[in-house]
Amino acid sequence: MDDQPSETNLSSKQIKVYALVAVMIIAAFGFGFAAGQGKIKIKSGKIEITKGQQPPATSADYSLLWNALDLLNAKYVDRPLDQQKLMYGAVAGLVSAAGDPYTVFFNPTDAKAFTEQLQGSFDGIGAELGMKSEQLVIIAPLEGTPASRAGLLAGDEILEINGETTSGMSVDVAVSKIRGKAGTSVKLTILHKSKMQPQDITITRAKIVIKSVKLDSKIVGNPNVSVGARKIAVIKINQFGNDTKGLLDSAIGAVVSGNYAGLILDLRNNPGGYLETAVSTISNWIDSDKIAVKEISYGNSEKDYTTAGVPRLKEMKTIILVNEGSASASEIVAGALQDYHAATLVGVKTFGKGSVQELQDLTGNSEIKITVAKWYTPKGRGINKTGLEPDIKVDLTADDIAADKDPQMNKALELLK
């Protein structure tokens, strides 16, 4: 992603670990990833290899790393080398070898920027990036940011950054190249889904301040006729951040007391956020102690997150708008309300980001973000790489946007007439 974390479904608990432990964690993750892919199975405590698959190496001679370091320091032409930089590069390479774009290492500078992003204020262009079929793509441009004003769309492929190809580039390297001081610019070579040829787009970075929740209203029917006109609430959630729960609680209070006849929850281009916030959001529609989302980790260990509190919107007819920029926590919310038939999904298939990351502190103010599990809806539907299909498919084309038309919103209003 660009300005947002590549995955924002994070455990709020920060765990101190040493670099050696990080190496062990990655080894364990690689083993678990293979199990999750069906390459190995664990039965009665024994490892069974799926036919035609090679077992993962469960140990390695790490003296190779030190040998390479010694040779660099002894023979490299431009000695001496920055040892701290080499160490960060080694750890970053180790983590990236897990093969997961959302399992990443943050050096102290990147770790600080990551924390600032989660707090909702940062310098950049205002777009979340992700990886699809090994291609760097825009997950979602955030509303009102330089990215959205420049015409970037969810699903756009980023081919180059300032003339440098993104082939083989990790999400977080791309983030570091696109991020920059407000007032400076970055040139992106973009391939829109609806275009045959890529185009260069130069975007001036700005201070991005994200207010995660916005309440609006629409009138359907004839507003000049007292009978038949209906007031519809529209709640737009841009991300599930630090401020979301408080703002959403206030918006729902206004909806409940405002004589609204229906609600549109707009999760389009919402790249995700905190798990706890997603669960509390679901709780506004679903009775207490119901499964909001399932988390399945290594060894098929399952943990259920359940709803809590009073579902103030339980009787409110609800439409959820989704698109290819709806990812992660927004897919958790949409999937749960779809499973419980508490809302109708309108739009197009969601992004398909259904994995769980845990953020842990390392020494020297660096951090590691590790994929530790995958999300499933209350009915057990997988989200990762598959996304959610809407109940009613409605496209929103580039021509619609240029003409200031929104057929997805129009369909939602039609359903609430």
| Helix content range | 25-40%
Alpha-beta content class: alpha+beta
Q: Number of helix segments?
A: 11
* Biggest β-sheet description: 6 strands, mixed
Write down the CATH class of the domain at 213-415.
Alpha Beta
Structure description:
By secondary structure, this protein is an alpha+beta fold. It has a domain at 213-415: 2-enoyl-CoA Hydratase, Chain A, domain 1 (Alpha-Beta Complex). It has 11 helices and 22 strands. The strands form 6 sheets. Strands 1, 4, 16, 17, 20 and 21 form a 6-stranded mixed β-sheet that branches. The longest helix is centred in the N-terminal third of the chain and has 18 residues, at 19-36. The radius of gyration is 23 Å and the shape is globular.
In short:
The protein is an alpha+beta fold. It contains 11 helices and 22 strands.
Name the descriptors.
417 residues; alpha+beta; 2-enoyl-CoA Hydratase, Chain A, domain 1; 6-stranded mixed β-sheet
SSE layout and pairing:
Layout: E1 15-16, H1 19-36, E2 40-43, E3 46-49, H2 63-75, H3 83-96, E4 104-106, H4 108-118, E5 121-124, E6 127-132, E7 135-141, H5 146-149, E8 157-161, E9 164-165, H6 171-178, E10 185-191, E11 199-204, E12 206-209, E13 213-220, E14 230-237, H7 244-257, E15 262-266, H8 275-282, E16 291-297, E17 301-306, E18 318-322, H9 329-339, E19 344-347, E20 355-361, E21 367-376, E22 392-393, H10 398-402, H11 407-415
Parallel strand pairs: 1-20, 14-15, 15-18, 18-19, 19-22
Antiparallel strand pairs: 2-3, 4-21, 5-12, 6-7, 8-9, 8-10, 10-11, 13-14, 16-17, 16-21, 20-21
